Amino acid sequence: MNKRRLGSSELMVSEISLGSWLTYSGGIGRDQTEACTRAAYEAGINFFDTANAYGRGASETAWGEILSQYPRDSYILATKVFFPMSDEDKGLSAAQIHQQIDASLKRLRTDYVDLYQCHRFDPTVPIEETMEALTDVVKAGKARYIGFSEWTPDQIRAGLAVPGAVKFVSSQPQYNLLFRGPEKNVFPLCAQKGIGQIVWSPLAQGVLTGKYQPGQPPPADSRAASADMSERIGRYMAPGTLAAVQRLRPIAEGLGCSLAQLALAWILRRPEVSSAIIGASRPEQIPDNLAAASLTLSPDTLRAIDQALGDAADYEDRIIAERGNTILHR
Q1: How far apart are CA 44 and CA 206, in angstroms?
Q2: Sign of CA dihedral 260, 214, 150, 308
Q3: How far is CA 22 from CA 58, 307, 317, in A?
Q4: How many CB atoms lie within 10 A of CB 73?
Q5: Where would I find the beta strands (DSSP E) of 42-112?
Q6: In a 3-state reduction of DSSP, which class is residue 116?
Q7: Which residues pair with 133 in a beta bridge?
Q8: Residue ranges of the domains in the chain?
Q9: What does the alpha-carbon distance between residue 330 and residue 57 come to, in Å, rounded to a whole number?
Q10: Catalytic center residues
Q11: How far apart are CA 270 and CA 293, in angstroms?
Q12: 167 touches 8 (CB < 8 A)
């Protein structure tokens, strides 16, 4: 597994990383969680991304049990703070940041995380308070670096401008073949500031695997068939979008790869991207995804992809945090 530097940090992260949203937070059982985590680790994935809000601690607890069986310096661990852990416990106030990092570390069975991320921007708290609290967390040795997920360019600049505060090294936006908005403003700004991208939903909630056929019910074991998960796939399930994804199939076949590998290779073509976060409900999904790191897409292939997707590819520079953190919130 190839590794890339995460922004200006010293962290070298695997190009494909493992996330725990929608899966280890309650979507699959404990045995499957361990099997997938072990398969990822043994295949060379060294970057594991979770959040306190995933299952309100369930994901962190599971990985605390599983990853603690490996040497701590053999993997890079990231978690997040912002979304509610109770009716009162939420947001990015200094009190919450200090309370939630301690709770996360306890669940994760570790003294520190390598990356502590603001899961969204908190407009109710002065940015100075948030950044100073994050700086205290780093100085206390509870986190090595800090990052954010789904911040606007103005919010990023505000965080970077706080005097004496530690600097962000990572951005975690939604980014995939169907959702390309971050390319416009977030990627260039972050590249200037030494902030690497660790992108979520690289397979558009599984839609880019091609398993959802237009006009047909979703497979019984898929996210779209789950009452708890189907609404989160949102606009990706539009008939026109599903039809566009199927038009990618001949391109993938011509390259001798799967649709998932094609979608991941398309993301990894960007030098701004440090890692693409995948989810897995079965161990065998992991080696298929990892093979994407060895693919190089030619200019002709990239043009063919754009032509196949047509209007299904969204280039609008939108930030999901500003759309209510509902259907696609994570």
Answers
A1: 22
A2: positive
A3: 11, 31, 25
A4: 7
A5: 47-49, 76-81
A6: strand
A7: none
A8: 3-204+269-296
A9: 14
A10: 54
A11: 12
A12: yes
- Look up residue 277 and give its two tokens: 């976060």
Number of residues that make up the chain = 330
Burial 276-288 (b: 16+ CB within 10 A, else e): bbbbbbebebbeb
- 100, burial (CB in 10 Å: exposed 0-12, middle 13-18, buried 19+): buried
Residue type at position 176: N
One digit per residue, pLDDT tens: the chain, 330 residues? 899 999 999 999 999 999 998 666 655 677 888 999 999 999 999 999 999 999 999 999 999 999 999 999 999 999 999 999 999 999 999 999 999 999 999 999 999 999 999 999 999 999 999 999 999 999 999 999 999 999 999 999 999 999 999 999 999 999 999 999 999 999 999 999 999 999 999 999 899 999 888 877 666 555 554 555 545 666 788 899 999 999 999 999 999 999 999 999 999 999 999 999 999 888 999 998 999 999 999 999 999 999 999 999 988 776 554 444 433 333
Instruction: Read off the amino acid at residue 126.
Output: P
* CATH C-level class of 3-204+269-296: alpha beta
Instruction: Extract the tokens encoding 45.
Output: 């994935």
